[in-house]
Structure formats: C-alpha cells, structure tokens
Backbone:
C-alpha cells in the first residue's frame, strides 16, 4: 500500500472512492480539501421500521432516523449503504447526511397500526442515532417520545454522549422494562479514538455516560465494536473491566468487518493514521478470515475463525468472568405496550 495525502480535518475517510454502481471514475491529481462541510439532505422515506433476518444480531426490527454518519469512523460497515443513494462510501458517507425529518410521525403511524406486533426496536441498526446532527434536529428524541407514549421496548446503540440528554425518556421506558442502552467503546486510548472516530466522544466521556445512564436505572452495557486486530484487540479485557466499574450490566464485542468499499476506506485511513501498523493489521485480519479481508458468513463474520479468534474469545470471556458482567443482551418486555387513545388498551 502506498501513502496517500491526509484527508480533510475531522474526517475519517481520506477520499471518495468509486462506488459499485459507477461506470466511470474521474482521477485527479489535486490534493484533498482541508475541510469538507456537512450537507443535510432530505429523506422522503414513507416508512421507518425495517426488518432484519440476520441470525448475527439480536433484533428483528429497527429504525434509523439518519442515513450516513457524521462520526466519520473509517471502519464503519454501513458505508457501502450510501452507494445505493448514488454517493460514495468515503467522504460522502460522513458529509452528505440524509435526515428522515418525518421519522417520529412515521413511527407513531406504524405503532398505531393493528398490524404492529409489539417487539423490541433497535435504534439504530445501521448509523448512529446520536451523531452530531441530532443535537440540532432532535429526530431521535422525537422517536423516543413516541416509544415512551406507546411503551414499546427499545435498545439504543450509540457512541455519543448526547444520549444523556434523553435520560428522562429512557428512564420512563426503563420503568416498564422497555429500554436498554449499549454504549460503543472501541478503545480506552483517547489518541487512538481521536484518529479512528474523529467526531465521536472521548472514551473517558463514554464511560461517564454509562455511569449516568446506570445511575438513572437504565440497563446499560458496553459494545466493543469493532475489535481491530493488531490495533485495539489487546484491550478487550480492560474495556470489559472499565465497563463494569462504570456500572454496566452487560458487554459484547464484534470483530472488524470490511464489506465492499469499507475495505478501501479503512486501509487508506490506516495507511495515513498508523502507517507502521498497516501491514500487521492486514496480516492479522487475514489470519482471522481464512486468508481474506472479509467474511460474509453468518456466525463467523462477527467473531472470525482460527486460533487467534479463539484467543480473542478467551480474552473477552476472561473480562466477563472477572467483572461479573453478562454476555450482551437485555431482558426487555412488551407487557406494558399500549396504543394511546385505544380504550381497550387501557385494560392491557
């Protein structure tokens, strides 16, 4: 791999690689711009709840108020999803954000339908619902307000401390065993995190957020995702222990996945951020993926295979044993679900 010029400040991707649906690629000798502003685009989706049948995840339904993510994590497995919108999985993914401004209204309509069978919703299944734009747009908060009125259970996954703003709604849901939160922590090193997740909170602040949520009675866990081989893998046990000290009740981990164009974005970033480790990271990934850089097989894609994969599992299990945390998962309930205004629901 050759060294490429560093990308725009505060961004994870270094460039906009050609995506799978483009027939032509324009090559330029110009250096990347020093900065790229975020552009908010309208998303005209007519529905908000999406279904999932993957055995690798714990939820069957999810909602995503945003497409694209401003956090700028070079490793994000969701990057190729932007290609279906005509954008690149590179800088476009983190600078052209589609906001579903009607998300709360769409959610209320779908939960009000007699076709809806109460079940846990993941918020979000793809991009972070508390990415920086949420502070201004409050689409995720609007969705939580709807979920609280219906008392429909929700599991939130985020790496942003902004979630503490919504403790009031999450606490209300938690009173009915209808809320759980997973805070994503990839490393305890602020230096590594600043390079790998340029617009996300410092790991120390994420742990403080775990404390705030847990103190408010909200079941909270830590998701170590992704584990980056030869870069952050040695921290598995330490992160689990730190999570327990902060009040977490559960923890999970997911091995780095590099589907489609994510591979190109990640290695271009790696060559700039950690050039001395790039070849070792690639070699370790291949050792976990049967010589490949990615594995799409259910059951293997989040854990890897081989001796090193077993070693990672051992480190994680050791952390659980030492800390007393449970493997990832919440025992949420739909028993308190109601449809506001439905008189029959008052007796449920």
Residues:
């Amino acid at each position: 791999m050759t060294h490429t010029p560093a990308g725009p400040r505060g961004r994870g991707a270094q460039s906009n690689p050609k995506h799978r649906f483009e027939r032509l690629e324009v090559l330029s000798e110009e250096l990347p711009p020093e900065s790229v502003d975020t552009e908010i685009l309208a998303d005209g989706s007519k529905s908000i709840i999406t279904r999932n049948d993957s055995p690798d995840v714990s939820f069957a339904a999810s909602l995503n108020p945003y497409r694209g993510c401003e956090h700028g994590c070079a490793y994000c497995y969701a990057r190729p999803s932007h290609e279906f919108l005509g954008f690149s999985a590179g800088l476009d993914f983190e600078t052209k954000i589609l906001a579903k401004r009607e998300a709360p209204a769409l959610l209320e309509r779908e939960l009000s339908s007699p076709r809806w069978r109460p079940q846990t919703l993941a918020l979000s299944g793809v991009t972070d619902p508390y990415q920086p734009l949420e502070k201004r747009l409050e689409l995720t908060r609007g969705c939580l307000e709807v979920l609280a009125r219906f008392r429909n259970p929700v599991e939130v996954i985020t790496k942003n401390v902004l979630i503490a703003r919504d403790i009031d709604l999450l606490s209300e849901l938690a009173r009915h065993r209808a809320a759980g939160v997973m805070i994503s922590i990839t490393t305890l090193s602020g230096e590594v995190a600043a390079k790998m997740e340029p617009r996300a909170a410092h790991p120390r602040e994420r742990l403080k957020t775990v404390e705030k949520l847990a103190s408010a009675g909200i079941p909270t866990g830590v998701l170590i995702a992704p584990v980056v081989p030869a870069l952050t893998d040695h921290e598995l046990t330490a992160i689990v222990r730190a999570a327990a000290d902060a009040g977490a009740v559960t923890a999970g981990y997911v091995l780095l996945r590099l589907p489609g164009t994510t591979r190109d974005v990640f290695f271009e970033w790696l060559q700039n951020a950690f050039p001395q480790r790039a070849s070792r990271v690639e070699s370790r990934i291949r050792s976990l993926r049967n010589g490949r850089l990615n594995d799409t097989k259910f059951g293997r894609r989040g854990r890897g295979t081989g001796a090193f994969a077993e070693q990672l599992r051992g480190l994680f299990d050791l952390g659980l044993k030492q800390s007393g945390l449970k493997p990832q998962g919440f025992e949420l309930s739909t028993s308190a679900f109601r449809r506001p205004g439905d008189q029959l629901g008052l007796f449920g």
Summary: The first helix runs from residue 91 to 95. The chain has eleven helices and eleven strands.
